Amino acid sequence: MTGVREPAKALLIDLDGVVRHFDGAIDAAIEDRHFLEPGAIFQAAMEPDRYRTLVTGGWTRAEWLADVGAALGLTESDVDELARYRGYLDREVLEFVREVRAAGIPVALCSNAPRDLADDLVQLGIAEDFDAVVNSSDLGYAKPQPEYFQAACVAVRTVQRYCLFVDDSQRNVEGARRVGIAAFRWSGHSDLPYLKAALGL
Q1: What EC identifiers does the entry list (predicted)?
Q2: Domain boundaries of the chain, sorted by first residue
Q3: What is the pLDDT of residue 5?
Q4: Are 115 and 59 in contact (CB under 8 A)?
Q5: Which residues, including other chains, have CB under 8 Å from residue 29's CB and lie 6 or more apart?
Q6: Other beta carbons within 10 Å of 68
Q7: pTM score > 0.90 for this model?
Q8: Helix axes 25-33, 76-84, angle to 10 degrees
Q9: What is the CATH number of domain 10-20+88-198?
Q10: What DSSP state is assigned to residue 161?
Q11: Which member of 78, 129, 142, 181 lies 3.0 to 4.6 Å from 74 by CB, making a disulfide possible if both were Cys?
């Protein structure tokens, strides 16, 4: 990480891959039933045009999965199974977020997500765990676009040089650094002591 010479005054943290994770067993079971290649569902879901539509407000999560299902020839019950699963939380990361907020440091959840992201946060029980939610679908800009990061800093009322951004995507980390935000690529729980130090905890 570069750019933090004194403790950061706000935390910008990614959702998927950091706070929330997905078990691939559900995808794998559906792929097996339909004789699809392993990873076919993820590949279809992340197809560039489809993903861009999702994260800029064009679809809800259910609409996105329905389109993925249609592309792969999945049944309605398969798509429903995918839609019901909301992933699981990393409790240690969530405790870190709560510790940061308890110290008076604002935290924004930063996600490239469908327009109904709020529903996921409610179902996961974390809707009240962040001072702001910066959803690409609300902005029309997605990480790593500079406009996204500028909006995230506004959301926590903190200038770029005093924000710390954490994401599991190197592309997004580099995008944040380009606009003057100290950014760190998440690799696991062993990163937490470093991040706490960067926030003066």
Answers
A1: 3.1.3.-
A2: 10-20+88-198, 23-84
A3: 64
A4: yes
A5: none
A6: 23
A7: yes
A8: 170
A9: 3.40.50.1000
A10: G
A11: 78
